[in-house]
Amino acid sequence: MKLIVWDFDGTLVDSRPLIEAGMAHALDALGLPRTLMAEWLKYVGLPVETGIQRTFGPLGLNFDEVLAAYRGFGHSEHEHLLRAYPGMEELLDELARRGIPMAIATSKRTQALNRQLERLGWTGRFAPVVTPDQVTHGKPHPESLEQCLAAHGLPPGEAIMVGDTPFDMEMAQRAGVPRVSVGHGFYDQASMVDYAPIAFAPDTQALATILFDLFPSQEAP
Q1: From CA 36, how far away is CA 69, in angstroms rounded?
Q2: I want to staple 156 with a disulfide (CB 3.0 to 4.6 A). Which of 80, 135, 167, 176 is the partner?
Q3: Nearest 5 degrees, angle CA 109-CA 44-CA 62?
Q4: What Rg, from alpha-carbon coordinates, does the chain have?
């Protein structure tokens, strides 16, 4: 294995408080019940526009109005709600020490992602960083992951996709890339099992064990 491709929200960072705050704001602004949040959360991991279409389209609501209400929350002013999962900083540091290249394939837009990476002190840590702004087809289409492979000149079997959603797992399966699912994000293990991940990590500690086995240190014991 020569590359780790990470999802961002729900995989590297706990963004649920930020996402739910934005959803609550949008629902309140539209005069809609917050019970709709449970349906909306089913599509976290897809581009936000897709989630809005799937959640509110069947209700006959105007897409532009819902998107404007969601964006009106002012996510940049509430990003203190977003935090790296416990142990994730140390895991990334150790993987970098081992010389493992790392990339990101996410459904978050470039501007927000770059801002959040800077807040976390992770600017420049991942290359490439592929968002919906760089692809024609978002997750679960394999294009984002294929861009990561192409940037490193690697065949699918030499990379690992790490993600917390069935959309990550489907993308990796369609790209022919082995995948590790994590359980500290938005989805449980059962929702991802159909996409045959090679391992499941319920938390960062378990994920570290899996990745260190796949990417052993080159130092002599």
Answers
A1: 14
A2: 176
A3: 80
A4: 17
**Residue 164: closest CA among 176, 149, 180, 148:** 180
Q: Cα separation of 192 and 169, whole Å?
A: 7
Distance CA 41, CA 18 (A): 12
What is the sign, positive or negative, of the torsion defined by CA atoms of 93, 82, 114, 57?
positive
Nearest Cα to Cα of residue 108 among 81, 84, 131, 135: 131
158 to 3, 12, 101, 137, 151: CA distances (angstroms)? 7, 21, 11, 23, 13
Q: State the DSSP code for 149.
A: H
The residue to which tokens 């799937």 are assigned = 54
Average pLDDT value for residue range 140-158: 98
Q: What is the pLDDT of residues 205-215, one digit of tens each?
A: 999 999 999 99
- Characterise 8 by phi-psi region: left (phi > 0), alpha (psi -120 to 50), beta (else): alpha
Q: What is the pTM of this model?
A: 0.92
Nearest to 175 by CA among 158, 199, 152, 200: 158
CA 214 – CA 20 distance, rounded (Å): 34
